[in-house]
Amino acid sequence: MRKYDVERVDVKVVQSDRYLIKRIGDIRDWKVYCVCESNCNNGWMRDKVENLARPIMIPLIDRDRLLRGETTRLLPHQQKIIATWAVLKAMVAEFDTHSWVTTHHSQRKYLMNRLAPPARGWAVWIGPYLRVSWPTHWGSSPFLYLSPKQEARRGGSLVATFYNSHASTQVIGSLFIHVMRSPANDYIENWKFSTPDGGSVFRIWPPSDVSVSWPGTIMSDRDADYVATGLYRDLMDRVSPLIKEGIENAPARSGGAPFWRWRA
User: Is 7 inside a domain boundary?
Assistant: First the structure.
């Protein structure tokens, strides 16, 4: 593609602002300059992550292979390699000019030192996907998670000055990748999807000793949209009475920073 659109939505207490940004080039050539060249980008990231992931992921990305009905089996150690690649890309993408950094530096160090996603609070899903008209190639939903005690200490304030959680989606060829992370460890790790058209979405992190028979049932556009926006919809359904009260009384309040943002 010669150009692509970036849609940004800032959900504030009083209003929601929507922006459409046009960028030149192909989003699949998107580069984020946030890591050192020698030790990271051309060092451990390439040698110990990307070079291991490439031969495993290329058959999953190949649309023609999927259309021919070719099958494979993803073993647990291969799932870990894909999950590590996906989490690395999610961490790097947070440093885009218009993004929010939600990952703590200790988690980035954990991935570098152990060549695996952090042990708690992260989940990675993959699925076979054939695009028809769904427009998203990359989507990110950063948000702020507060425990009940933290929320009580904040009182009536709905202003978020930082985010500590996110859900991001990336589509490469016929491979759908969804990464979720939050300090709400149990919430993230126990999350399950039930796609509306029965498309196959496999959780590959946290790790298991179960292999995956690929591709399973191919995801539809509706399946892809359901997975990409599932966490957002669930959080809106679960929004606390305190937040609901703030939203209902929004006209009487001043503005403030957003407590949720969706970017696709």
Answer: no
* Beta-carbon contacts of residue 68 (< 8 Å; ≥ 6 apart): none
Between CA 134 and CA 130 the distance in angstroms is 10
> Whole-model pTM?
0.87
In total, how many domains does the chain have? Answer: 1
Does residue 121 belong to any structural domain of this protein?
A: yes
Please identify which residue in the block is written with the tokens 């894909």.
82
Does 28 map to a domain?
no
Tell me the sheet residues that pair with 74.
Answer: 212
Q: For 224-245, what is each residue's pLDDT tens digit? A: 999 999 988 887 776 655 555 6
Residue found by looking up tokens 């990675």 in the block: 124
- The Cα-based distances of 162 to 61, 104, 122, 143, 148 in angstroms read 34, 12, 19, 8, 17
User: What pLDDT shows up at residue 12?
Assistant: 62
Q: What is the side-by-side order of every strand in the sheet holding 260-263?
A: 16-24, 3-11, 260-263, 138-143, 165-172, 175-181, 122-128, 202-205
Identify the CA nearest to 11 among candidates 148, 168, 160.
160
